[in-house]
Amino acid sequence: MATKTALSYRIQGDTGEWEVVIGLEVHAQITSQAKLFSGAATAFGAEPNSQVSLVDAAMPGMLPVLNGECIRQAVRTGMAIGAVINKWSRFDRKNYFYADLPQGYQISQLYHPLVGEGTITISLDEKDPNAEVKAIGVERIHVEQDAGKLMHDQHPTRSYVDLNRSGVALMEIVSKPDMRSPAEAGAYLSKLRSILRYVGSCDGNMDQGSMRADVNVSVRKPGEPFGTRTETKNVNSVRFVMQAIEYEARRQIEVLESGGRIVQETRLFDPDKGETRSMRSKEDAQDYRYFPDPDLLPLELDDSFLEDCRASLPELPDAKRRRYEESLGLTAYNAAVLTAEAETARWFEALLAESARIQKKGEQEVARAAANWLLSDLYGALNRLGKGIDESPVSPEQGAELLALIADGTISNTLGKQVFEIMLETGDAPGEIVEERGMKQTSDTGAIEAVIAEILAKNPNQLEQYRGGKEALFGFFVGQTMKAMAGKANPAMVNELLKKALS
Ranges for the Asn/Gln amidotransferase domain (predicted)? Predict the structure, then answer.
């Protein structure tokens, strides 16, 4: 049984409570049109071995040439988490044999990484402004090249090698062992993914392999030294990371409580069974025979390069969330949801900018209406259609026009929902829909009064009951009036005139 409160988490074993110690090594593919040391393309889903240069294939005599854009993106990522940027760094060779590693070594950075220590702040409930927060330390970010991929499903007895990923630039973002629950690890990974997407240094598409986590787990009795850890490789979703931690922690506790010992090893996570299994014994740094890469000079960064990197950073999610709450007056929940993904924040800001341009109202009033519409009407429609916000059939400009028609009384909220459904189907502008289909809201007092008089005449029993004290029937008369006017009557005016007629 696991017990938890806020940011605490314990697993109850036969011998008492156990604490879980977690660290993540996240491999994030750097956004770049070319690989780390060659000009080969990096597009996802290309035909096997169609994006391989002579350098990637390790042909004799080929020398690596560093892609400066990859370094720039890694530095910007380090700056986004407040990390130390090392002006001097060095590439090392990590030697090991594998069929998808044509060089027989990987070019990486062990001893002198590009980025040093930083911090990522997490909350287990981003929507609660009073929730506890925790700072998770980042030990380093180093740049390295990816290996290729073995394909085991192309032939009944053979495996094929696809070198499209060989040489792709990766950031390895290594956390400190600061996490103590699956939920903390999930929050950390989600927050890191959000930052990477805001910065634009990685697309964060875990299902495509452009971001994946190696999960280090150990257990101990609270207050005791760290236990022996295992590393579960290449877990490709937040949910699977949390499941892998839960399973691995319980497995280790069972081993220890039965008198066994934990072996430092590399494991794999089986998402179908929700369990980890042994892959190989864990190597140490000396097993890889690291040494400085003789084909690459040390990397030295100057101040102007660092200044340009810092100046190019966007407003990051935590700062944006604070601005939404403090300047725009949004609720903590709405601000958290709107800033969780860079795409959502960009869509909202485009919607807000256009709404502010065409509406003559205060910034906070416009922002609250825009946020509520996006998170209820638009999100609801996109979920129904199975689309992301970047695939929305309605543009921010069209959304702003719809909100303006509702704000100035041209259409009611009810008519606005009908217009929105038509926009989703046709892609037409809301103003055109309202004009062509005669959906304008009426504020003609004479027309509304005539309909009210007719409704009262048709419902004498309800009228008598209302005047006898059954005030709940007021809603009945409102509904009947709106129905008779096909939802086009101004609701505020209907309420006002009905109260006058019923008094």
Answer: 346-502
